[in-house]
Amino acid sequence: MILSHMEQYQSGLDGIFQALADPTRRAVIGRLGRGPASISELAEPFEMALPSFMKHIHVLERSGCIITRKDGRVRTCAIETAALAIVGDWLSAQRALWEGRTDRLEQFLAEATDPKETPR
Amino acid sequence: MILSHMEQYQSGLDGIFQALADPTRRAVIGRLGRGPASISELAEPFEMALPSFMKHIHVLERSGCIITRKDGRVRTCAIETAALAIVGDWLSAQRALWEGRTDRLEQFLAEATDPKETPR
DNA sequence: CAAACGCTTAGCCATTGCGCTTAGTATCTC
DNA sequence: GAGATACTAAGCGCAATGGCTAAGCGTTTG
């Protein structure tokens, strides 16, 4: 298991998931997947004011999902794949837990003849 | 590609990521990975009051990460792996974007010799 | 039947999140 | 050097989040 991830970011899962919980920020990640871009370039598709957009960038940067660098007056952003790898690692760990446990789960579902909320 | 996920839950990514952004809720997911459990059983490891804990359960249920059923006075919870699969799908889609693009990204990183605004 | 149990509802409170505007600062460009 | 450009800082408003307590409600147990 790659521990560098765990040590650095394990406690950062909060921030990473939080960062990814917003459609604007996920769209930014999507755009950056095709290569680095400047702030205004990233902001262009969105209707919101630039300072509002900047907050999203900060959230992404603080969480470690992106890295940025300023050259002159232009700040360039790039995706930081390590953060998404952390999510992938967590997902794998979860999957490892419930795999081979479908027996119990199916049993639970089979018994659920009442839809969701049993009438009182 | 399995589209049923995309159609049903694509707009639910907000809720799923939001649900996973809390350590208590991730711990619940972890516990449920080992099999279904009742509310009080799930709440036991946590210091918070039961109504506070219930809010986490509701967040998890609304997001689709878990399903619950009430038998008598006991509500049993189980993990809903489909929600985590949605996250996995999204992650894969992102990975697909930035894979084969390491050239550009490495170039960006190589140029980042300026330690002024470079986060870690 | 009464008491204990397992939630569940309602509402309070402090903090955070996400949008806005207004007003900077620091580069370019001419 | 003046003006445009590309952010950046500060602060406002409102809704949502995450904790709490107090009280209620149906179910099981003695």
TrEMBL record, chains A, B:
**Record domain HTH arsR-type: where:** 5-99
| A Pfam family annotated for this UniProt entry | HTH_20
Example GO molecular function term? DNA-binding transcription factor activity
Q: Which Gene3D superfamilies match?
A: Winged helix-like DNA-binding domain superfamily/Winged helix DNA-binding domain
Please tell me whether the keyword DNA-binding is annotated for this protein: yes
Under InterPro entries, the record lists: ArsR-like_HTH, HTH_ArsR_DNA-bd_dom, WH-like_DNA-bd_sf, WH_DNA-bd_sf
Q: Which SMART domains match?
A: HTH_ARSR
Keyword entries, A-Z: DNA-binding
Report if keyword Chloroplast is assigned.
no
Q: What is this protein called?
A: DNA-binding transcriptional regulator, ArsR family
